[in-house]
Amino acid sequence: MFKKALVCVSLIGLTACHDDNKDQHSTAxxxxxxPQVIGHRGASALxxxxxxxxxxKAIDDGADFIEPDLVSSKDGILVARHExxxxxTTNVATLPQFADRKRTKIIDGVSLTGWxxxxxxxxxxxxLKARERIPQYRAANTQYNDQFEIPTLDxxxxxxxxxYQKTGKIIGLYPETKHPTYFQKQNLAMEDTLLxxxxxxxxxxxxxxxxxxxxxxxxxxxxxxxxxxxxxxKHAQLIQLYDSPEARPxxxxxxxxxxxxxxxxTAQGLKDVSTYANGVGPWKxxxxxxxxxxxxxxxxxxxxxxxxxxxxxxxRPENNFxxxxxxxxxxxxxxxxxxxxxxxxxxxxxxKAGVDGIFTDDPALGRQAVQxxxxxx
Length: 377
Description:
Elements: E1 7-10, E2 15-18, E3 36-40, H1 52-60, E4 65-67, E5 69-72, E6 78-80, E7 103-107, E8 110-114, H2 122-125, H3 153-167, E9 172-173, E10 176-177, H4 180-185, H5 191-200, H6 202-207, E11 210-214, H7 218-230, E12 236-242, H8 250-254, H9 261-264, H10 267-273, E13 279-282, H11 299-305, E14 309-310, H12 340-353, E15 357-360, H13 363-375
Parallel strand pairs: 3-4, 3-15, 4-9, 5-10, 11-12, 12-13, 13-14
Antiparallel strand pairs: 1-2, 5-6, 7-8
Helix pairs in contact: 1-3, 12-13
């Protein structure tokens, strides 16, 4: 059982307090409606992504949410990996017992060669160890290579729940279903498993704010229908993710639906999204008209008019990932160097544009950006 405690969490615009003896809903206070810090794959700028240590680091560094990307094992268990092809994020290619599992597959129209989670049972995946995905930019993270297992969704929920038991602080969960149409075709559909797992634990069922996100559309509509029918996860909401404007959701491609993400980003498209989602997660390019970020598009205003929250991705602290006008150095030999001042300025430009939260690889910088932004208000 969870300790009896008074704790507060901002449910992205609604401030709710949990107290065994008091009404759980209080009036929202404007000064508390600050942008949410979402630990993108944990604190992946500082630890190998999608490991329990990365999620714990994100929690310790002030994240409001931790974000696991979910894929399926051969036996239908949801595990956290950025992609189902895992040669770049684990040591699988070095293990002789799995050499014969190497495959070439078409995933959402892209040919990939490597090792895929759906070809391994959970017990086999637990024999693997995580590695840094982009060592050319995050060499310091390689010191943690081959130390940590691939975590299950259950283990991530348990991590957040134990933190809540210990501190009384609620950390939200922000899972993404990766390649849902592909996994459906493998008879490994993730949606029901996801809801069943979340509803199994008191923390994720009754306490924590939950955002379920996807780049596809059909599975979000299915999740909404199931949540409306069964009310199985008390604080669950849905987020439509946006890839590049010219791209199409993978389920649209499978259905020969010509609509692109650009179509979903128009004022009417956002109204349509609001019929099944509570928010949108756009790639950063949707927010500003120019690279120098001096003029916004209408995306945020249109989304807010449709009662959608806006959580753009991804804010990273290295020079390589920053806009040219915010880099600490344009010298390509310093692309991997951290530029904390530039990263904070970038996030604050998006705060000023009106976003409701940000996906960041470095939640400590995200928290610092929020706090210094708050001080100017």
